[in-house]
């Protein structure tokens, strides 16, 4: 078991990053931190995909002939898209945070909820 | 049995449905609005009546409306049982329409448009229940009937009425849940839910446990509307509805649709034989017998006349269910005959109760001392119908009960025969006080303790609240209009109770002052508006006719045909 | 495949691309006229609705799938294919029609240009989810629709809506990310992303393979968040409640619907019935979660005092029913799920429009404030009542048909506890719907009950909504709901009833699709 | 087998992620998170994904950090860095640990890191097709670019739409018109 995990070290880190990201999202009262946590969670997924593409002794797939050993290009393409999606989400999330701050004067969820309940 | 494609069953459903739209469209013009109601009622009755000869000659009119889902057709079918129920509801709708006009205008009720629209919708769905060709179609109309009658139950908009409506919907929709589940089991057992005289082939030979579960679910579901105990308690509460609603729907259409559906389940889904073989008929009859007795005993204790009638309904409906549970042709004839018999009698009783309410704002039996003097015709009709209920010979109730007793004796179910006889005595027990109050007691301001009262007499003071809800509004343009409308009766009327509530705005302690002076004596011709008296007379005559010449009325012929088809015997 | 691409294949691309390109117009030219935004939204949703109608007509009439290879690269060449079958065609048609309907209903509610762009991006993203045949492409469209939805919810600029949108964004992103992990697991165990290629490859990898199981678990968990099943529904009530009223109608009608469609698509086309046959526990867990949603959603709905919140929790319950229909893996149940998906969208969309109409005209938002609306707004109230009854599942409305089919499927599967939950959901729903109906029809708005009796009571007076009927009431209540929104609400009510008779028709239309989905 | 540089990067990444989680001060967390993203970018390059690495550096470490800092600048007073940590919420942490353990149970079934075709199904016919035919089909040597713009061009169109949607969304949320 341990050995199997050791040969798959990147995936172990993937699992850890998911856990850390999730923890920030669930627990942190700071809305900006929550968004950071979301990003940690997503980069964990990126690590999964990029690791899938890895091949021992391979090089980036830049070729005109197809000769040679290459990493799998497809996951790279997917993650390029996913990174852009991630930053887009972050931008919108932060805009929402700014909006919430304008309204309630805080970026901490507990404070905002308190303000809301006072209304 | 020949099946003939015909639009007539559909017409019977859609005429009242169209009336809903017309009534809504002519809101604000009451005479036109009521005109539509009458027109639709008469047209509906004629449509249904036109199918009677066919039904008697074994012709079944079918309207096929397509498939609802695999194995579930959406179809209407006018077989003898459906025609029986449809004719009854159609005829009594005409009578009740007239009564409604008298009652609603007499009380100057609010939201009359909604009332008449919902009433027509209820009839439309009741017709659908009558002519549904299979369990699913029946379920569809059964649910719609619940929805359509809900506004009528909650009509008063008081806290009490809203609660009654809530209770009513939750009870009937809960029943609907059981019906749907039962229907699905029937579908999965036999692949169809189409009604077949003598039972759906394949259901009798299927897994008996599941079949029993399906029967129990269906009967329990329909039993809610049929007010079988322990699902009855919505019905007395629903008496908060205007009296015509109680009369037609809670005596004829709604509760009867429950009973009628149980009849469908017994006769056309499982078949009487399968019901007997599965061993579910006797438990059903036993539940009915318990309901019958317990409801009668509770009725004894009700002082509110409509509530007493409601418990009487609970009890009388169980006669029908009891007969359906017994595997004997006479029991079935008795059960089915009790559908029209009870309908005519109970509608008379409710009409009378409503007339008393409109004229005198009296709802409680203990306050009705000597009211026979004020409303001789009404209370006379009440007496006749009550006697019929108790099963006096020559009246409607006698014939059906006679068949039921003979049926139960024939299968050696003496216990049920005994229950039937005992209930007759209880009937006398709870109707006699009304009659005796009306004709043999004075308007004693301190009424004697009645038979059913807890020791100490009537808590009279607490009743004042009952008048509060009947606050008509005098002096409004509406009331003036009303007065003109009715001046053929009102013109001769001395300044009495009726005039008071149309022409003056002061109604506080209205009934109490009348009581104190004693009821004035009125002739049958002037005791109320003929919008109400007419229906009372017609219904009472019907109740008598059913007892005197049952063979001459179409009902008995239809019922014999139904039973012959279901049992495979000739009567 | 290039040659006939001018034909029907083009429609499945355009149904996504047209609204996306149109979304640029309000941003670019919004300054020119105040009509640009509205006009573009109407035109683009109309075009989308027509295209979707063509797609639905074609697939449903001949039972064939429409496969479109984008850029001429087929799946075997690593390209992305769009696949439209009967189920996706119906959902796309729903998106088109609902998008148009809500746009019409919003005519009197002029908004910023960005609003109309986001509106179009939302319907485009949802349509993309439906037509794509590639699991990663589905993720991209899921995120497009998600982004548009988050922004639309916060588009009226209140703090509450921003907070709810952020909460939705975070949970929605976690959901989409979980879905992406599932895609990763499916990819690493097969090497494919195309749905039609994945199905046999997953079978080859072995349905009990831990990677395949993990793939399904992540996909299902991610989509469950997007659908808002109990207990991961927590984003949904806040989002629905705080969003602008008409946005709520659109989102309630379409967003969870499309996610549920995606779950059906992934479960049946990618993982297939055999996967569930090999892992009965997976099916049982799915059914258990869905059944819990049905009950929990209704119970939570009963407790709410704000109408929008009540209806939001109701969606949790109704989508439980849809997922039950999907997870039963029975023909009738799947038909029921699709019918309920569409029926619920119409009903819930209509109800939220009704809520919007009432809120706009009378400022009422809580159950208590709905007193006497039946008289103040007779048409909107009647439509609202019909839709509410359809939600309960009163026959012969569409709500009943969906429920009936799901129940028949449950009977055929012999899943009696589920049959009980499904049929009992009627009474559960009645629990909260009845509160509304009582308020609307049987409670007086003002204490002056006597005045109203005079107005509507006896002969001569009676006229609900007439000039006499309104007398004695504060003038401010004379305001009435916008004509467009009431018309759309009434249309939804009519559709809910008419579709109620279409059960068998829909079943036979879907028959080829359903048998393909359940047999492969 | 794992190289020291890879191992070092992974340790760095996990460490910065944990620090991000624990730091109470948002500014500090953002700065650490920027380091985390940079570490990621380097890791992508080490893992032979230069396209992803460059994008991550520009977008993840660059744009993202700027966005975070801009947000902070608009919402919180900057009072200097603090190194205090948040209190760990044990139930939430336990939930996350359970989640991690659940994910870890699937890890042994994954192909080992660096496993090539045959052992790693991801190297299937599709990836083979890309590598072999991309140049002939598209005349682009970088297969990643070829896939991005040609084979999976629809994804890229979607990606552009995502950015557009986010931009419009930000404008809508901040209640700005386009030309205001």
From TrEMBL, chain A:
Keyword Transmembrane helix part of the UniProt annotation: yes
Compartment list: Membrane
Segments passing through the bilayer: 6-26, 35-54, 74-98
Principal cellular location given in the protein's record: membrane
Keyword rRNA processing: no
Keywords per UniProt: Membrane, Transmembrane, Transmembrane helix
GO CC annotations, alphabetized: membrane
Alphabetical list of Pfam families matching this protein: Oxidored_q2
Topology in membrane: Multi-pass membrane protein
PANTHER family per UniProt: ANTIPORTER SUBUNIT MNHC2-RELATED, MULTISUBUNIT SODIUM_HYDROGEN ANTIPORTER, MNHC SUBUNIT
Protein name: Cation:proton antiporter subunit C
Source organism of the structure: Saliphagus infecundisoli
Automatic annotation (TrEMBL), chain B:
Entry's Gene Ontology molecular function annotations: oxidoreductase activity
Residue ranges occupied by any NADH:quinone oxidoreductase/Mrp antiporter transmembrane domain in the UniProt entry: 132-422
InterPro entries listed in its UniProt record: ComplexI-like_HydComp (IPR052175), ND/Mrp_TM (IPR001750)
Membrane topology reported for the UniProt record: Multi-pass membrane protein
One Pfam entry name: Proton_antipo_M
Chief location of this protein within or outside the cell: membrane
Keyword Secreted annotated: no
GO cellular component, one term: plasma membrane
Transmembrane segments: 6-24, 36-56, 81-103, 115-133, 168-190, 210-235, 279-300, 379-399, 411-432, 530-549
Keywords: Cell membrane, Membrane, Oxidoreductase, Transmembrane, Transmembrane helix
Annotated region described as Disordered, given as residue ranges: 450-518
Biased composition (Basic and acidic residues): 500-518
Oxidoreductase keyword on record: yes
Subcellular localization, as worded in the UniProt entry: Cell membrane
PANTHER family: HYDROGENASE-4 COMPONENT F, NADH-UBIQUINONE_PLASTOQUINONE
Protein name, UniProt field: Complex I subunit 5 family protein
Organism expressing this protein natively: Saliphagus infecundisoli
Automatic annotation (TrEMBL), chain C:
Membrane topology: Multi-pass membrane protein
Major localisation: membrane
Segments traversing the membrane: 6-29, 36-60, 80-107, 114-130, 136-153, 165-188, 211-235, 247-264, 284-303, 310-329, 341-365, 377-394, 414-434, 484-506
One CC-aspect GO term: plasma membrane
Alphabetical list of InterPro entries matching this protein: CPA3_Na-H_Antiporter_D, NADH_UbQ_OxRdtase, ND/Mrp_TM
Location of the NADH:quinone oxidoreductase/Mrp antiporter transmembrane domain: 133-429
Compositionally skewed regions (Gly residues) per UniProt: 457-469
Keywords for the protein's UniProt record, in alphabetical order: Cell membrane, Membrane, Transmembrane, Transmembrane helix
Subcellular location field: Cell membrane
Region (Disordered): 452-475
One protein family per Pfam: Proton_antipo_M
Protein name per the record: Proton-conducting transporter membrane subunit
Species this protein is from: Saliphagus infecundisoli
UniProtKB/TrEMBL annotation, chain D:
Major localization class: membrane
Cell membrane in keyword set: yes
Keywords annotated in UniProt: Cell membrane, Membrane, Transmembrane, Transmembrane helix, Transport
Transmembrane segments: 7-23, 29-47, 54-72, 92-113
Protein's UniProt keywords contain DNA repair: no
Organism of origin: Saliphagus infecundisoli
InterPro entries: CPA3_Na-H_Antiporter_A (IPR050616), MrpA_C/MbhD (IPR025383), MrpA_C/MbhE (IPR046806), Nuo/plastoQ_OxRdtase_6_NuoJ (IPR042106)
Pfam families assigned: MbhD, MbhE
The protein's name: DUF4040 domain-containing protein
Compartment(s) of residence: Cell membrane
Membrane-topology descriptor: Multi-pass membrane protein
Domain MrpA C-terminal/MbhE, residue spans: 121-176
Residue span(s) of domain MrpA C-terminal/MbhD: 11-76
GO cellular component terms, semicolon-separated: plasma membrane
């Amino acid at each position: 078991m341990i050995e199997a995990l050791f040969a798959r070290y990147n995936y172990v880190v993937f699992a850890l990053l998911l856990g850390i990201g999730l923890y920030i999202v669930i627990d942190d009262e700071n809305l900006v931190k929550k968004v950071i946590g979301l990003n940690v969670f997503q980069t964990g997924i990126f690590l999964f995909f990029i690791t899938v593409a890895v091949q021992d002794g391979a090089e980036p797939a830049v070729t005109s002939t197809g000769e040679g050993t290459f990493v799998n290009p497809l996951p790279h393409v997917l993650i390029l898209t996913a990174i852009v999606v991630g930053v887009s989400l972050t931008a919108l999330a932060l805009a929402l945070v700014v909006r919430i701050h304008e309204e309630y004067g805080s970026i901490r969820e507990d404070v905002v909820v308190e303000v809301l309940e006072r209304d | 049995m020949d099946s003939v494609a015909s639009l007539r069953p559909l017409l019977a459903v859609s005429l009242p449905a169209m009336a809903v739209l017309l009534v809504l469209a002519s809101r604000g013009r009451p005479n036109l609005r009521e005109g539509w109601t009458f027109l639709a009622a008469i047209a509906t009755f004629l449509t249904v009546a036109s199918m009677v000869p066919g039904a008697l000659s074994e012709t079944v009119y079918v309207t096929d409306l397509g498939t609802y889902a695999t194995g579930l057709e959406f179809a209407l079918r006018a077989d003898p049982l459906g025609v029986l129920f449809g004719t009854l509801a159609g005829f009594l709708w005409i009578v009740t329409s007239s009564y409604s006009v008298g009652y609603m205008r007499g009380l100057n009720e609010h939201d009359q448009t909604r009332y008449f629209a919902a009433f027509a919708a209820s009839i439309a769905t009741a017709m659908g229940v009558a002519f549904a060709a299979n369990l699913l179609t029946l379920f569809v109309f059964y649910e719609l009937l619940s929805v359509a009658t809900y506004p009528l139950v909650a009509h008063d908009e008081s806290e009490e009425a809203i609660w009654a409506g809530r209770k009513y919907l939750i009870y009937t929709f809960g029943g609907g849940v059981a019906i749907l589940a039962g229907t699905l089991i029937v579908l999965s057992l036999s692949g169809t839910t189409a009604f077949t005289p003598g039972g759906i082939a394949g259901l009798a030979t299927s897994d008996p446990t599941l079949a029993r579960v399906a029967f129990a679910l269906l009967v329990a579901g329909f039993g809610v509307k049929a007010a079988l105990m322990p699902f009855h308690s919505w019905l007395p509460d629903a008496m908060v509805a205007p009296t015509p609603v109680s009369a037609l729907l809670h005596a004829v259409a709604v509760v009867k649709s429950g009973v009628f559906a149980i009849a469908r389940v017994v006769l056309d889904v499982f078949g009487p034989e399968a019901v007997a073989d599965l061993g579910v008929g006797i438990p059903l009859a036993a539940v009915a017998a318990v309901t019958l007795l317990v409801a009668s005993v509770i009725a004894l204790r009700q002082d509110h006349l409509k509530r007493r009638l409601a418990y009487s309904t609970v009890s009388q409906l169980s006669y029908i269910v009891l007969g359906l549970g017994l595997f004997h042709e006479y029991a079935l004839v008795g059960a089915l005959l009790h559908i029209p018999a009870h309908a005519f009698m109970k509608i008379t009783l409710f009409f009378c109760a409503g007339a008393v309410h409109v004229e005198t704002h009296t709802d409680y039996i203990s306050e009705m001392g000597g009211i026979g003097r004020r409303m001789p015709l009404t209370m006379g009709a009440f007496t006749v119908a009550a006697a019929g209920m108790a099963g006096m010979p020559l009246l409607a109730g006698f014939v059906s009960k006679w068949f039921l007793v003979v049926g139960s004796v024939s299968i050696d179910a003496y216990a049920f025969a005994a229950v039937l006889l005992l209930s007759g005595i209880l009937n006398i027990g709870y109707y006699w006080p009304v009659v005796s109050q009306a004709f043999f007691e004075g308007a004693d301001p301190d009424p004697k303790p009645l038979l059913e009262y807890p020791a100490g007499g009537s808590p009279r003071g607490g009743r004042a609240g009952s008048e509060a809800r009947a606050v008509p509004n005098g002096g409004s343009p509406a009331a003036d209009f009303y007065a003109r409308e009715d001046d053929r009766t009102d013109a001769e009327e001395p300044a009495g109770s009726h005039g008071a509530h149309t022409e003056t705005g002061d109604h506080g302690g209205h009934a109490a002052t009348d009581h104190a002076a004693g009821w004035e004596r009125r002739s049958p011709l002037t005791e109320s508006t003929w919008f109400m008296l007419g229906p009372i007379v017609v219904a009472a005559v019907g109740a008598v006719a059913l007892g005197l010449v049952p063979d001459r009325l179409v009902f008995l012929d239809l019922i014999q045909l139904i039973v012959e088809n279901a049992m495979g015997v000739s009567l | 495949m290039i040659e006939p691409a001018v034909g029907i294949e083009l429609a499945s691309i355009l149904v996504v691309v047209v609204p996306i390109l149109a979304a640029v117009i309000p941003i670019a030219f919004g300054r020119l006229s105040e009509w640009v935004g509205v006009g573009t939204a109407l035109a683009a949703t109309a075009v989308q609705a027509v295209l979707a109608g063509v797609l639905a007509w074609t697939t449903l009439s001949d039972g064939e799938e429409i496969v479109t290879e984008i850029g001429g690269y087929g799946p075997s060449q690593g390209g992305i294919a769009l696949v439209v079958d009967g189920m996706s065609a119906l959902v796309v048609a729903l998106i088109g029609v609902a998008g148009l309907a809500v746009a019409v209903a919003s005519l009197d509610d002029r908004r910023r240009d960005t609003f109309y762009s986001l509106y179009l991006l939302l319907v485009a993203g949802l349509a993309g989810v439906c037509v794509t045949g590639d699991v990663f492409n589905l993720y991209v469209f899921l995120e497009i629709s998600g982004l548009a939805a988050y922004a639309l919810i916060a588009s009226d600029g209140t703090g509450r809506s921003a907070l709810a949108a952020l909460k939705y964004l975070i949970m929605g992103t976690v959901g989409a990310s979980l879905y992406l992990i599932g895609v990763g697991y499916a990819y690493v165990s097969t090497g494919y992303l195309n749905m039609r290629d994945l199905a046999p490859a997953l079978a080859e990898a072995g349905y009990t393979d831990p990677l395949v199981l993990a793939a399904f678990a992540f996909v299902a968990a991610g989509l469950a968040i997007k659908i808002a099943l109990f207990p991961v529904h927590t984003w949904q009530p806040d989002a629905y409640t705080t969003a602008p009223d008409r946005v709520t109608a659109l989102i309630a009608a379409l967003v969870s619907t499309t996610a549920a469609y995606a779950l059906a698509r992934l479960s049946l086309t990618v993982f297939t019935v055999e996967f569930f046959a090999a892992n009965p526990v997976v099916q049982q867990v799915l059914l258990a979660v869905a059944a819990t949603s049905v009950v929990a959603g209704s119970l939570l709905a009963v407790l709410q005092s704000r109408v929008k919140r009540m209806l939001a929790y109701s969606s949790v319950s109704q989508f439980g029913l849809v997922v039950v229909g999907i997870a039963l893996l029975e023909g009738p149940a799947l038909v029921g799920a699709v019918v309920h998906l569409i029926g619920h969208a119409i009903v819930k969309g209509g109800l939220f429009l009704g809520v919007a109409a009432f809120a706009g005209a009378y400022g009422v938002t809580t159950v208590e404030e709905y007193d006497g609306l039946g008289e103040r707004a007779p048409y909107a109230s009647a439509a609202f009542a019909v839709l509410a009854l359809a939600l309960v599942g009163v026959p012969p409305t569409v709500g009943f048909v969906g429920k009936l089919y799901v129940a028949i499927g449950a009977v055929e599967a012999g899943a009696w506890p589920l049959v009980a939950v499904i049929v009992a959901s009627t009474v559960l729903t009645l629990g909260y719907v009845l509160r509304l109906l009582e308020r609307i029809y049987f409670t007086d708005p003002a204490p002056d009950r006597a005045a109203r009796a005079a107005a509507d009571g006896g002969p001569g007076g009676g006229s609900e909504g007439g000039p006499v009927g309104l007398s004695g009431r504060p003038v401010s209540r004379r305001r009435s709901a916008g004509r467009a929104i009431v018309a759309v609400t009434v249309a939804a009510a009519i559709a809910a009833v008419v579709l109620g008779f279409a059960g068998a028709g829909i079943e036979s239309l879907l028959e080829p699709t359903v048998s393909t989905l359940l047999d492969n | 087998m794992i190289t020291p540089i890879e191992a070092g990067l992974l340790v760095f990444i996990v460490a910065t992620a944990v620090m991000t989680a624990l730091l109470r001060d948002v500014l500090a967390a953002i700065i650490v998170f920027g380091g985390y993203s940079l570490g990621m970018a380097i890791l992508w390059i080490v893992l032979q994904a230069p396209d992803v690495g460059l994008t991550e550096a520009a977008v993840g470490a660059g744009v993202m950090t700027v966005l975070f800092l801009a947000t902070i600048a608009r919402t919180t007073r900057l009072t200097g860095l603090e190194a205090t940590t948040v209190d760990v919420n044990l139930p939430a942490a336990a939930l996350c640990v359970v989640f991690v353990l659940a994910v870890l149970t699937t890890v042994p079934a994954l192909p080992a890191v660096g496993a090539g075709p045959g052992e790693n199904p991801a190297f299937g016919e599709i990836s083979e097709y890309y590598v072999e035919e991309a140049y002939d089909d598209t005349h682009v040597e970088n297969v990643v670019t070829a896939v991005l713009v040609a084979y999976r061009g629809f994804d890229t169109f979607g990606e552009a739409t995502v950015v557009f949607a986010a931009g419009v969304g930000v404008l809508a949320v901040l209640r700005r018109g386009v030309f205001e």
